[in-house]
Specification:
- The structure is a homodimer.
- By secondary structure, chain A is mostly helical.
- Chain A is built from 16 helices and seven strands.
- A three-stranded parallel beta sheet of chain A has the order 2-3-4. In chain A, strands 1-7 form a two-stranded antiparallel sheet. A two-stranded parallel sheet of chain A has the order 5-6.
- Chain A is globular and about 75 Å long.
- Chain A starts with 10 loop residues before the first strand and ends in a 6-residue tail after the last helix.
């Protein structure tokens, strides 16, 4: 199953520069979001949620709960999307995304996103969509062939609608998602050329020095359906078991032996999640010269993740028990988004000359 | 250029049963419309407009001015669409379509049409779209190849949205458009299967015993861009010239000779437009046995068309001079259509489980 969000939320910090990058960003319109196809997990936390909590203080951030995009490969199993909308909202609020600072909206509640998609679809060829490297590899991964749903092949157009509807300047992405922004900016240039003025503005990626957080076995992609993710409401026991099962250095047979940290998932997670980078550096040295066992490093990681998740889990449990509140939050954000997106839609319609009524 | 409307408006009566068919239809929701890519002409008049004037008395008829569909092959020349919206509305009113009886609405003014298209796009594969015989032949005709705009390949999905948004039971079409209704009904069945109840109803074609009205040369399709159409505001002189240029029987060299009526465009038009079928039958007999010249038959057709068009032209000229009124009519109809389509959208969203807000 595709767990690709509209931003690469399953990415992890390679270095600790991710968050400091975010802190330098201010006064920008930012659009980000997630496909509503499952609970969010640690990959999302480190790849995007943490950054969003920071970005919301100095920027105008909109987060899209992308239910319609979730349908593009779940057309016949829509409950996978419907059942996860409030899960995603609860995850947002539990990690500290503040609806008073960030507009959290539901994609299907904002008609302008569909309307813009329809206009843009006239400016993008099927060949161009098929050349999109991100979509190409996803199609291959799914063995869609020509039976690919029309909504799936065209979802980069829908993403362009999402981004431009909010006149976003910055879109947090991993480099695997850059082709999506190229497609968006191509559309922007075409609309501007039609109108012979700047109707829409091009967006820029907010790239962090990040790479995808590996799954516990170090081999596959993190995926809820593969059962190899740690969700944001994971119990202490689940966390402990997941860490125990993590891939380390298969040649590190005794504590005394020097161990490898490359490809060692425990250290990748420590890099991503441990608050004390100096301490992690010391652990790495120790592990590499020998004398530090996997049991010990796994215990450190378990403690670290349990400490991180414990308060998030508590808040999340309280939130998910109050669905009325979650709906209220989503309703309010969606109403704001409806109003905000109307301007871009009006401008695009005018560019096509369709502003008669 | 594609002049295919969302109903086959460039069709002509082969027999006089077209209108009597329409008179038997009652208490039906009917959806029809035209791409707003040019003034309507005699092909539209006999193929659909005349029928609509009759249908509106006993049915709930919605006519869509399909500006967004017009963009699907005019993405880079949108003024061709924008400039023709009011032309089409003026044509409707000039022939007697009554906005008090028929909802005349602008496609781009009804967001539910775009939204439904997005949902349905997840239920239709690219392969299925490419197999659509109507689209296939249009793609070939345009030499699109893979550079076909995404909006064009997917326009059958958008048509399904148009039809189902108004819960249309009957869609007037020529048999070349039947694949469009098949596509619509496939989507209807998929949505109903998702919800396990009848969310949408299948539509039926309102087929008349009609064939496409030929252009004056008898060879090509009628097309505004080919300059071989008689528009509904054609002057007496234009009509007279167009009829003079019509293809008859090339072997009918003297008046005395017997003439052929098969492929004789003058007789095809007389069949389609002359109010007195018995008289036309007598003319045919006379022509076939010899003694009736093309000058005479052309004069009869010219008189007939001038009589038909003269009052339409006068009303049309008055209407097009009052753009404010045309906009008012379109605005009111579009507002009605917005309200009416909301129900189908709500139902479809519920079928996908996306009725949270």
């Amino acid at each position: 199953m595709r767990d690709t969000p509209i931003t690469p939320t399953t990415t992890a910090a390679k270095a600790t520069t991710t968050t400091s990058d975010s802190k330098d960003v201010r006064d920008q319109k930012i659009l980000t979001g997630d496909r509503a196809t499952g609970q969010l997990h640690l990959g999302h936390y480190v790849g995007s949620l943490k950054q969003r909590v920071e970005l919301q203080h100095l920027n105008q951030q909109t987060i899209l709960v992308a239910d319609m995009q979730g349908l593009t490969d779940n057309g016949n199993t829509p409950s996978k999307v419907a059942d996860n909308i409030l899960n995603v909202v609860a995850d947002y609020l539990a990690v500290g995304i503040d609806p008073a600072k960030t507009t959290i909206c539901l994609q299907s509640g904002v008609p302008a996103l569909s309307e813009l998609t329809m206009y843009y679809a006239n400016l993008v060829s099927i060949a161009r969509l098929e050349r999109n490297p991100t979509v190409k590899s996803e199609i291959q991964g799914k063995n869609f062939g020509r039976s690919i749903p029309a909504g799936f092949l065209t979802y980069p157009i829908s993403q362009a609608a999402d981004i431009t509807a909010f006149q976003a300047q910055l879109v947090p992405v991993g480099d695997d998602q850059l082709p999506m922004l190229e497609q968006t900016n191509e559309i922007v240039r075409k609309v501007n050329a039609l109108a012979n003025r700047e109707v829409l503005r091009e967006c820029q990626p907010l790239l962090s020095n990040i790479s995808r957080l590996p799954s516990a076995d170090g081999k596959s992609k993190m995926s809820k359906s593969l059962g190899n993710v740690i969700t944001l409401d994971a119990s202490d026991k689940t966390i402990s078991q997941a860490v125990k099962a993590m891939y380390t250095d298969p040649n590190h047979l005794t504590v005394d032996q020097p161990g490898q940290i490359e490809g060692n998932v425990v250290f990748t997670y420590l890099d991503a999640f441990h608050p004390d980078a100096d301490y992690v550096a010391q652990l790495k040295d120790h592990y590499q010269r020998g004398g530090l066992g996997d049991g010990k490093t796994k215990q450190i990681l378990t403690d670290c993740l349990q400490t991180l998740i414990s308060p998030i889990r508590a808040r999340r449990q309280a939130l998910i028990a109050d669905k009325g509140y979650l709906i209220e939050v989503l309703k309010k954000g969606t109403e704001q988004a409806k109003q905000e997106s109307q301007q871009a839609l009006d401008n695009v319609k005018a560019a096509f000359g369709l502003n008669l009524l």
